[in-house]
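Aim 2, interim progress. The first record below pairs a target sequence with its structure tokens.
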Amino acid sequence: MKLKYIAPKKLKILMAVCFGIGLWGIVFGLWLGQFQASLNYFMITVLGVINVGLGALFAYLFLTQVRSVDPRKDSKYKRKK
């Protein structure tokens, strides 16, 4: 499956946000879940795991994508008006 090229800066920001919020959600859900059993803390933990998974997906895209230069969009081929 071929995906559209995403700028590395955007991918780095998305990775940081997803990993940060995911780890916070896991720690928050597990730590507060010790004191009071509730399905809400379990859901926070599950959503934290999902965010870590999204961060891993963005990391995979960041490490494997290759920028291909389209010669039609290169500046030396632009027409003069």
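The second target in this work package is listed in the same format:
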Amino acid sequence: MRIFMRQELLLFIAIVSIWVGSCSRENPAEGAFVVLLDAAPKGLDPRFATNDSSAKIVGLLHAGLLSTDTATGAPELRLAKSIDEVSPTLYRVELRPDAVFHNGDPVESEDVRYTYMEMGSELVKSPFAGMSKKIKEFRILSKKSFEIELNEPDAPFYSDLGLGIVNSRICAGHSECPGDPIGAGPFKFVAQYGDDVLLEKFEGPKIERLFFKTIKDDNTRLLALLGDAADLVQNAVQPVMLPVVQDAERLEVISAPSFKYTYLAFNLEDQYLKHLKVRQAIALGIDRKSIITYKYRDTARLSTGVLAPNHWAYHGDVETFDFDPERARQLLDEAGFEDPDGDGPLPRFEIEFKVSANKFRVSLAELIAHQLADIGISVKVRSYEWGTFYDDIRSRNFQLTTMQWPSVLEPSILRWIFHSENIPTAENRSAGANRGAYRNPRVDELLDQGNRETKRDKRRQIYAEVQEHLARDLPYVSLWHEDNIAVLKKGTRDYFVTPNARFEGLKVTIPAETHEQRK
């Protein structure tokens, strides 16, 4: 790790003061609460918000019938006054009588019908069109009430109701809503300046004006933080740099458990990795605790599976593999891969570890490779730019890799990841995310049940058994759940971080003095 000396910090701040001064003469958002993003938003229509930055801003501009931006991922009502499950395939919904769009139009049943049912049309072609395909019939009962009948029971559909509702009076007849975004969320759109977005409060928030500024370069973003050019940065400071911001007088760092899941994935058709004892040995050969301490500065938690401990469907009573290199060597012997020369330099076998070219991820892979060398496995780390890397993973062209699921909210995603019908091929890389070719008929059966069952208690039981099977079969080595890290201007009050890292906390945040007041 690079050690930042006081003189370097002073130089950084001096440079940033010049940068901030130049920005302030041109910045249309003086006096706003400034949030720095590491990637630009790609559109603000909720039906097309697949980019993370877009989704976060959309969650403030638009409102759905409910929201899963909660402490456990369990849905809470928003535009809906009530949602009644009449049967596993029928929902009856009543809208809040006071729900309105930013232009004053009331949020009505037709707006919901249009949003859901037109996503799959030839005109709209939303990436979320799968939602409309689940609906057999949408029946409007009144301007503020309606029924949704599904083709078959579908548990994830309830969470799908968090999709932001658009104004049908404006959007009908267009592939995307024309003009400025008009939603029904707590903030309304003011303007967009290239990659930057300015909002102002609509109803409820204490923040009057909210400015999202995109700074893609890590160093420049850090300079902006240190130089008083921002009020909030979330999950955009590398863990190794946290001591720098923690020492800055004007900043405070808060962390909270996340739903992010980092894992090691195996190709289960590989000549070595198809053996369970080899996979167990690899799990035992990784000192996860020391990695969390050294690389993450203790801002991550050990993982037992895809679902984080703060998730409503989490089941922690499963088989685990704590660091035990001696036991790892024994398992490799039992699997038939004995050490060829005892304490000599020859490995038991060699495997390739593919990773993206992200420097932090490469350094993690190299550390894991070093640890596995101690149990006799030679690991060659190969890094690739993202497009090439992801194409190889989707084509199952790998032996060992590490990736992250950024926010696991709905447990039905386990079906996408581990069901045997979701094994992609080179010809159909989009067939599913079961890229290691994991097969277990009982798990398939349970995952199908979990997708159909709509009662939460029963779903929790189903997914508990799924988690037990996955922990035993080890298609993944569950590494850790990284914390969500927010860096705030000192004096900012009431901001909180949700497990899915959305900006729900901005709805109640009381800002410190604005940039205008600081001058």
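The radius of gyration is 25 Å. This observation will shape the mutagenesis plan for the next reporting period.
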